[in-house]
Amino acid sequence: MKAFSLALLLTAAVAHASAQTPAQAPQTPPAVDAPPAEATRPSFADWLAAVRTDALARGIRPEVVDEALADIPEPLPVVLERDRTQAETVFSLEQYISRILTAKLVATGQDRFAAHRALLTEIGEGYGVDPHIIAGIWGMESNFGGFSGVRPTIGALATLAWDPRRATFFRGELFNALEILNRGDIDLAHMKGSWAGAMGQLQFMPSSYLDYAEDYDGDGRRDIWSTPADVFASIANYLVGHGWIAGQSWGREVKVSRAAERAIVNGVARRDGGCRATRDMTVPLPAQRWRTLGVRTMTGGALPSTMPNAALVSGGSRHFLVYANYDALLAYNCAHSYALSVGLLADRLAGPPAPVRAHPRAKKANKTRRAHA
């Protein structure tokens, strides 16, 4: 989740209309804490000793605590550097989607979906979640299991918990990670993930792991690092836990004329919400209301009367009507760039690949080359 997935290699640099840095989701850091005075800040060794005492008081076995904290002599410099580095490039929603949804990613996804079709279908039916959506999140988070991070989770979380910027959040996640080790779901050597502590092929923070990870294959471990059944079921369980409605899609791309845009800006209220993305969309309206405002299907036809109530999400040139299930995608990562990319990737995996949209600059460059040919 988040600033830590394949998608968020770009998301950290996207404007808030299309993303956030980092996502204000249950698995990502909150706002920066007020730092304590430097004179009162303990040394890392003293701080780690206090963590050990607290972990033991929480019931974590001494041998687990000792092994986990033994090889962290100092904060990890690479983690602190990544936490402070801000990308300079800003991508629009359209740029982000075109950079993420490449032909290579879609082809990889189709191959990986085919390899796990029976399992994805079984889990999708069991949880009431579209298997293509499950695969879409899997693709966005770890390139379909291709890369899920190499940083030691305990070391990364200890570094960020000691650092004053988000100490409260990461201290809690550190104890959650120790509890995962205490339960025996993974050993220390294999507990790896992103620089910010997001773990496995679906990039759960430890708190989300404890709440939503599933042992689908029944081997006694909730293995989101290397067991596809547990990975897929955990994604589905997270979405169900955040309101996913069985049998309903995420949304659709639509055409909105300039006149319709003006009517929507002047006549349709914006949503309230805890993260910026939820505020950067309209309230949901019925299909008839959108038809009256001039919103059309991508082929120019009338919106179907059976369409659920939908909210409008707009970039610079692309527009999407999103249904209630879209909120579950925002819960996974509260960024329109992320949620829309998951939905569009899922659609590609469910059917023939859609033509890849060229970026406007690329179109201009092609015209220039043809003119000089």
Strand arrangement within the widest β-sheet reads 4-3-6-5
| String of helices and strands | HHHHHHHHEHHEHHEHHHEEEHHH
Secondary structure: number of strands: 6
Q: Quick one: CATH class of the domain at 8-87 and 148-212?
A: Mainly Alpha
The percentage helix is 40-55%
Categorize the overall geometry: globular
Given the structure, what is the number of helices?
18
Tell me, rounded to a whole number, the average pLDDT: 87
Q: What is the correct CATH architecture of the domain at 8-87 and 148-212?
A: Orthogonal Bundle
First and last CA, distance: 46 Å
Describe the structure.
Helices cover 49% and strands 5% of the residues. It has 373 residues and is mainly alpha-helical. It contains 18 helices and six strands. It starts with 7 loop residues before the first helix and ends with a helix. Residues 6-26 and 355-373 have low confidence and may be disordered. It has helices spanning 8-11, 44-57, 62-70, 77-84, 93-100, 103-115, 117-127, 131-142, 153-162, 167-183, 206-212, 228-241, 258-267, 276-279, 287-293, 326-332, 336-350, 360-371; strands at 151-152, 192-193, 251-256, 295-296, 311-314, 319-322. Helix 8 (131-142) packs across helix 17 (336-350), helix 12 (228-241) packs across helix 16 and helix 16 crosses helix 17. A four-stranded antiparallel beta sheet has the order 4-3-6-5. Strands 1-2 form a two-stranded antiparallel ribbon. Among the domains are: 8-87 and 148-212, Orthogonal Bundle (Helicase, Ruva Protein, domain 3); 251-322, no CATH class.
